[in-house]
Amino acid sequence: MARLADYFVLVAFGPHPRGSGEGQGHILQRFPEKDWEDNPFPQGIELFCQPSGWQLCPERNPPTFFVAVLTDINSERHYCACLTFWEPVEPTQEGLCTEDSAEREEEAGEGGPVGLSPAAPGPPSQLFAPKTLVLVSRLDHAEVFRNSLGLIYTIHVEGLNVGLENVVGNLLTCILPLAGGSQLDSVEDGVRTISLGAGDRQVIQTPLTASLPISRCSVALLFRQLGITNVLSLFCAALTEHKVLFLSRSYQRLSDACRGLLALLFPLRYSFTYVPILPAQLLEVLSTPTPFIIGVNAAFQAEAQELLDVIVADLDGGTVTVPECVHIPPLPEPLQSQTHSILSMVLDPELELADLAFPPSTTSTSSLKMQDKELRAVFLRLFAQLLQGYRWCLHMVRVHPEPVIRFHKAAFLGQRGLVEDDFLMKVLEGMAFAGFVSERGVPYRPTDLFDELVAHEVARMRADENHPQRVLRHVKELAEQLYKNENPYPAVAMHKVQRPGEASHLRRAPRPFPRLDEGMVQWIVDQATAKMQGAPPAVKAEKRTTVPSGPPMTAILERSSGLHGNSARRLEVVRSCISYVFEGKMLEAKKLLPAVLRALKGRAARRCLAQELHLHVQQNRAVLDHQQFDFVVRMMNCCLQDCTSLDEHGIAAALLPLVTAFCRKLSPGVTQFAYSCVQEHVVWSTPQFWEAMFYGDVQTHIRALYLEPAEDRDPSQVGEACPQEDERSALDVASEQRRLWPTLSRERQQELVQKEESTVFSQAVHYASRMSYLLLPLDGSKSRLLRERAGLGDLESASNSLLTNSMAGSVAESCDTESGFEDAETCDVPGAVVRFINRFVDKVCTESGVTSDHLKGLHVMVPDIVQMHIETLEAVHRESKRLPPIQKPKLLRPRLLPGEEWVLDGLRVYLLPDGREEGAGGSRGGPALLPAEGAVFLTTYRVIFTGMPTDPLVGEQVVVRSFPVAALTKEERINIQTPSDQYLPDGLQLRSCTFQLLKMVFDEEVGSDSAELFRKQLHKLRYPPDIRGTFALTLGSAHIPGRPPRATKDKGPSFRTLSRNLMKNAKRTIGRQYVTRKKYNPPSWEHRGQPSPEDQEDEISVSEELEPSTLTPSLALKPSDRMTMSSLVERACCRDYQRLGLGTLSSSLSRARSEPFRVSPVNRMYAICRSYPGLLIVPQSVQDNALQRVSRCYRQNRFPVVCWRSGRSKAVLLRSGGLHGKGVVGLFKAQNAPSPGQSQADSSSLEQEKYLQAVVSSMPRYADASGRNTLSGFSSAHMGSHVPSPRARVTTLSNPMAALASRRTASRGKWGSVRAGGRSTDVGTRLAGMGPPQANGAPPDPGFLRPQRAALYIIGDKAQLKGVRPDPLQQWELVPIEVFEARQVKGSFKKLLKACVPGCPATEPGSASFLCLLEDSEWLIQIHKLLQVSVLVVELLDSGSSVLVSLEDGWDITTQVVSLVQLLSDPFYRTLEGFRLLVEKEWLSFGHRFSHRGAHTLAGQSSGFTPVFLQFLDCVHQVHLQFPMEFEFSPFYLKFLGYHHASHRFRTFLLDSDYERIELGLLYEEKGERRGQSACRSVWEYVERLSKRTPVFYNYLYAPEDAEVLRPYSNVSNLKVWDFYTEETLAEGPPYDWELAQGPPEPPEEERPDGGAPQSRRRVVWPCYDSCPRAQPDAISQLLEELQRLETELGRPPERWKDAWDRVKAAQRLEGRQDGRGTPSSLLVSSVPHHRRSLGVYLQEGPVGSTLSLSLDSDQSSGSTASGSRQAARRSTSTLYSQFQTAESENRSYEGTLYKKGAFMKPWKARWFVLDKTKHQLRYYDHRVDTECKGFIDLAEVEAVAPGTPTLGAPKTVDEKAFFDVKTTRRVYNFCAQDVPSAQQWVDQIQSCLSDA
Hints:
This protein is an alpha+beta fold. The strands form 11 sheets. It has a 7-stranded antiparallel beta sheet. A 7-stranded antiparallel beta sheet has the order 39-38-37-36-42-41-40. A 5-stranded antiparallel beta sheet has the order 3-2-6-5-4. A hairpin with a 3-residue loop joins strand 41 (1859-1864) and strand 42 (1868-1872). The longest helix is centred in the middle third of the chain and has 30 residues, at 746-775. The protein is elongated. The protein starts with a strand and ends with a helix.
């Protein structure tokens, strides 16, 4: 029984003691005055009566009622029902109220006026003070409290004739039955009718079950106020221990909301701070660090907003605010969505019917109280689903004297498949769940609705999941039960309570609330107490039963997720393999082992393995032979390697008894157990695992303890109990024992308690030794101590250990100590193990109630157990070393290149999978090639791994990964668990800039010193102290016999020796170059001494043909200079200048005057600029001595020089370094008058201005317009008369809108014209990417560039040109652009490497993480910027303006841009020969710092690898992708250069400039040396040799347009990731060392070792393993190979592939002609989208044919180039590879353009002539692409070929010597060649044809 009310209190307003305006509550009276013994009076009630503070009010408010909750120190809740009414304040009354204390009276007297003073003056300002009636109770009967206090108020207000003392006395003496007790057997007991003696009657119903919460309507109201989603998030927040704060203006609503939330949490009890109504004075409670549920008046919302980690629910506004820093884990799916949908069905039943065509007329909606129960029922079901099967994870640790229960969290999560679920994990770790386990885990107790639900309804809930109506029916059934619990007898609920009349509070009360008579009330209470004592005590005899456990968890699991279809087969394989092992059929077992290891990835197979192994253990021991032992250990390791530290599936638990059972005899008396071989798993060092195991075993033994007496058996036979006994779980047994406990005698009880305690103690001893088995390593020596890093070391630091320095630290130090100290340090591991075991023992024994004596004994025993085990292990370790070692796979030695030498022989390693999925057989399928077991080799050139996959199912594949040592970018040590389950501490991760990653760990047999030696040697090779130490240079020295060692000499002699060696054949060289200028390719080094193959038949002498314009060293030069000059003439630069017709060497010759540019030898000794080539192109008018001064204005002295000239527009491209502050920028910035003594800097600035003026003047159209004075001419010719004075404008990108505005108002600036037709975006804006975007990033429309423009645009870095203002100047214009720096390229490349070759698998699946990393690297953005700038420069050049690129130091981005511009503008550079020339000229000669950017030596190590050249190649690759028919070289060629520019195999890309190469003797040393087939030193030479043998560098789609200028799309969306970064071939390593990549041929099908059927020709090609181009070559390559094979079979010498290809193309042309198709190259064109063919012929429709002239005469006028250029272009496409030919092609021996005089009176016409030696005729066509022959001359009829003379109408500009006649028997044909050498060639060819005949 319990009292309805414990205390009645009257609280009134009183002034604050400190005299502040605010009052405070004073307790006027309380009844009873003495505290009850069982329930002391709660403190602080005054605060809770007026939570917002005690204040006076100007008007009389209606009475209010709410229930506050106070929680005492014992977590008991006290319900304080408060009814507040208002009374007028009168000074006299104030005195009355406080008369019991004189002191207080004085204060009140003083305080009265203070309280009244703020009111308005005058009598009407009456104030009212609050007064509160409070009932304090431990029962939650809010309605009864409301009625009772209301009755007392009514009696007072209405002046009823009832004594208030009687009413209060009756209220305090009212006794109610407790919920759930045995008194509720009848209606009379369950329903109590009470009367307080005022003619009232109230019916109180006691709930049926005490544990179920009473919610009334609070849950339904909470959902109405906040909505489903909000309540669900509050529910999850409360469960996961977050802070929840409710806000409302109503106190009653705050109480209801808090009560509702708590009701939802049932069956868990909220155990943190719970204050439904928090008074204002206690608001600081909100900043407590612990979780809480608190309600606060909405008036204090501002204080709530300052809290950062509190979830605020505003009940009035219906919102829930979750701070950013708080993460509320949602319910696990599908429960979240199911709960949501059921809640909406309950709250809004009309939602289901809303879409019906004929909705039912009436829908029955539940009452609010019923809806409340339905909502609770939904959450009750939710908990039943969440916690289903929880009783199967309870461990009964002790039964007597009190049950001790532990919950096996890991097993529960594992069996439910919710290990990853954040929500459930947090709930299970929370305090509420701990309380749930200790309260509900008890096996024998009263049960309630939840126990029934979780035990018996789980199956029904699972069946109903997809049937909403059935779910709703179930919810309603549960709701009925909940409703019945709160209202057991609804029929008798009749109340009769008087209420005050309407608006009674406004009537003036006859008097204040009276003071009650304490004595009278006390007398009534005492009377009742005496009566109760006489009555018999009401014993709370609960109905206790065994709690049902429900279906076991396994059943739930099987229903929820069907197992894999083939799992039965896998289990069969596991069973077969184990039976083979134990039957001794080792061969059979070995065959099955791979399949078993794969099957063991599945949980069922691992369980099956444990069960099967259990069958083979007799008497706790199973002795195996060595092979069996190895098999069993291997399978156990495979099982354990996938176990997490929690062991949620119980695999480690099942194997734990087995690892101490299986053993083998090593020698007499020495036995090795399996545990010594399976220690390296994280699970063994997890304390939670050991605790769960311990409690599980204790439960088993306790159960056996109580089952045993009934059966009279000894403990060893426990396992063989009879079936019905065996089925009883430990909880059932414990329940039975708890039931019997009160009936046992005291002695028997003591005996049972002692037995249980001894059981726990013996298990603790057993576990101490078990843990020592698995924690002490077999090898106690120092090499094994490093395991602490993974095991105990972490554990030491993670738990609150007593050890100050971590284990790992002490171990690492001990490794280096002398051997004498070994004993001391091995004790350290035992020390750590002892501490670990002691901590474990302390925890479990304290929880299990082991006596302190026993615990002390355990602490003494543990060190002895560990010591004994160590001694045993020493013998085992010693004997195990004598076993024969396991045979490891034989090391596969890789093949080496010529000149490559071994540095370190193979070290055994495991190659581990990295983040690339392909090799590891990831999501894309394919075999698991990695991890692989093999060896790593170090040579002078490469790091090579060769090995075989550890997965035996992959077969005998060889895995190769290698990269050049010079490409290494990062080397770091790693620690990893290896595939073969040993923990090998020494791991290395090597990353290379050729996009390879070697992630490997060294085998045990490799000592740490060997691993360290490998690292040191690798470092030494990667960073040699001097460039001479690189492979390319050491290789050369090794292979040149008799080469003297190079002593360090001063610089002078090296130049002199160079000149001496080179002068011998200078003349011959120049002469020959003049001859071969008709072709683009210069003779290779190999053929320097002999004429090119084409000219072998009749080499003409050219000495008398030489013109002054050729690059002959002029006689004006000094002799020594002349020698140097002759060598410089041979460089790539000069060959290209000659091809472009860019000037002469000498300024003294008359011919040169007309030339705008000349070749200046001013830098021949590299005196002006060391990073420039020796010969430079400068304006004709600038003298050499001025160049020295100009160079000072530029960084690194790299002054502007011409590097290319457009053949059509004659605009030139210049390059230079960035400006120093005193250059052009200085001109712009400081226009002040120069000081009297003009400084040297000023003069050089003037020189610079003159120099730029000379550049502008050198351009033909500007020069022609107005002679040398271009200002007036330029403005009149190009700018129009409205421009007052021409100004140079600086277009900055900082404010594009301002630029636009200025341009609209005045179009004086030249940029104003450089824009698209309707657009006003300037070039600079476009470069910055701010202009109107082009569709798809396409080049602009043809109107982009107009004729009005500056003569020269200077593209400079925005940072340099800051603060520049426009000033009157000449016709050049600055374009400041923002470019990235080299360090940004370096950073971006690092990120790109990590994206393409990640070190570890990605966290997110799929390609999302790769794309995020790629975007993060910004590599493609840099490519985009480069292409964007380059396309713009191309447009400017094409429109006739010259461009000077002047960025950074002039050797990185400048080089990239300049090279790209030339590649896009000039088709020649898109040939193999042209690209070589471009790289040699722009990158090598113009001094890109390859050694510095590639960190080639020790000095450059800190600067890191910056792949500027690789970025350029990537840009070329992007263009290649968009224009596949414009490039003669294949994409492989770019990858080849990308790989070898970093590999150091060749010398080409070493050092930073020509100057350094000469100094080291690299540049010209190959000259006189005749080498055989020794290793190539130059990459170009290698490419040339390889191209003769294979078409790997050739692009079959090559069919160029004549004068195509390429304008690629540059948007990031148009760019592709280069496959060079991502592809890999594990079969042979990188394919760029051709000799190595072409491995031995495949064995014929019959000999194939992989067991395939011999007749099959099929072969599996794995993209990650095989080289796809080799396994599946393209059709053309395959046909060419087939052709060679057939020719070889026929015994004929195979034809070269190029000849065959040319023949096929020619035949295709003829075929096309016969079919009447006009497509000359349909073979090629068909496969390429046509729209990219013609992209970009925008600015002009020029003459057909290329603008590239073959002539070296630089005064050749543009008028006559059309025909010659056609000849050039034709020859370049068709006979590009003619230098590789030995015999002439069959039917096109020679071809080109000739002018032919028509028959009598007909004009001269250019025709395309083909000399065919086979058919013996000279055919001619209208155009080079024509397939239809216009006519032919039969050579049999030719009588003579003779020089001719020009006749009427002949081309004017051609030299007289270029005419020749062919006389036949019929007539004389007059011909005219483009120039004299061409004419000579034709004459020679025709004559040789005649002589052959």
